[in-house]
Amino acid sequence: MTASDSTELSRPIARKLALWATLACTLAVVVIMLGAWTRLVHAGLGCPDWPGCYGFLTVPQSETNIAIANARFPDTPVDVSKGWPEMIHRYAAGTLGLLVFGLAAVSVRHRRAGLPVKLPLFIAGFIILQAAFGMWTVTLKLWPQVVALHLLGGFTTLSLLLLLTLRLRRQALGRQASGLSVAGSLARFRPWLYGGLLLVILQIALGAWTAANYAAVACTDLPTCQGQWWPQGMDFRHGFDLTQHVGPNYLGGQLTSDGRVAIHVSHRLGALVVLAYLGVMLTLLWRRRGQSGLDNAVVLVAVALALQFGLGLTNVWLHIPLMIAVAHNAMGAGLLLSMVHLIWRHHQLVQPAMSPAPHTTTINREVTA
Q1: Count of alpha carbons within 13 Å of 356, Cβ hemisphere only?
Q2: Per-residue confidence at 304, pLDDT binned at 50, 70, 90?
Q3: From its phi and psi, is residue 249 left (phi > 0), alpha (psi between -120 and 50) or beta?
Q4: For residue 351, what is the enclosing H or E element?
Q5: Distance (Å, rounded) from C-alpha 146 to C-alpha 132?
Q6: What are the helix and strand counts (H, E) for the chain?
């Protein structure tokens, strides 16, 4: 069988896997949104055990089951209204895990057809690690370090699934990197794109730390915080203390008000840095895009950036309404995905133009003469 025959046979499989990978991406966004919803309604410990709920597969609701559950966990009596958000999140995460394992299994089975194997297997392994962090989130009683890493793990899983989707779609269409030669100024944007991606990741990490320490409500006015441009007494040392010991129940947070204000202000400053950096970078990239085909990718990042910044402002103005706060988390994922997509498109379409070797130029001149 020739390489071209193998490619033709792999396209239908890649097309189907691309659809499943797209579904996995969509479900990953839903899981992130459900995780935000669970935190915002203070249901992170709605079920004190893992993976079940008070030893049941679902939230206990009958009088008999509630009595059994309360006997098993006397320190955390059943609250059905908080148990369901937690379990719905777990069901969605479990379904995503099964879908990822299925993608990995099919990829391994058809590896001779040239389908990507290492990436699906890595994502499957990462899902197992993410599940462990989900367990530790409960067993360590919302320890901020674990909660923040669990949130970042969700965004990482989503980004990897997008990369897998893009690779499978390219293979399904039978395309390779175009190798389009463009102006060197556009090719030199690559490190700036990675710098923008790093800033977005750091800002997401700040957002995760803000959520894990319940610091979103530390400042309820704009553009100042508690009526001051630089609040007095901000405690950055305790606000960003990564050595907090395991043991207390961190539901609702354990930090002082000054520590939470420091976290909140840092998140605001990070948002301004990301807005300024991406704003300038996207403007310059748009002006130099030429015929590169990056138009849609650039616009997508710009729209996600504007929406995310607007949602962040609205969160503070309206005092963290549930739907806006969940949307803010979802759009954070959208901004990350749009940056990953832009970098992917840049890699596919932009290749640094190579100057011809001196002897080649001489030969060309002789032939022309």
Answers
A1: 8
A2: very high
A3: beta
A4: strand 351-352
A5: 10
A6: 12, 2
At 320, which amino acid appears?
Answer: I
Question: Is 86 annotated as catalytic?
Answer: yes
Q: Which tokens hold the place of 107?
A: 């990829």
Contacts of 208 (CB under 8 A, 6+ apart): 147, 148, 151, 152
Q: Which of 8, 63, 86, 366 is catalytic?
A: 86
Longest dimension (CA), the chain: 97
Which positions ≥6 away from 49 have C-beta within 8 Å? 55, 73, 138
pLDDT per residue as tens digits for the range 44-87: 999 999 999 999 999 999 999 999 999 999 999 999 999 999 99
- Cβ neighbours, 10 Å, residue 252: 10
Distance CA 158, CA 152 (A): 10
Show me where the domains of the chain are located.
1-176, 183-369
DSSP 353: P
Amino acid at 301: V
Token reading at 343:
């970098």
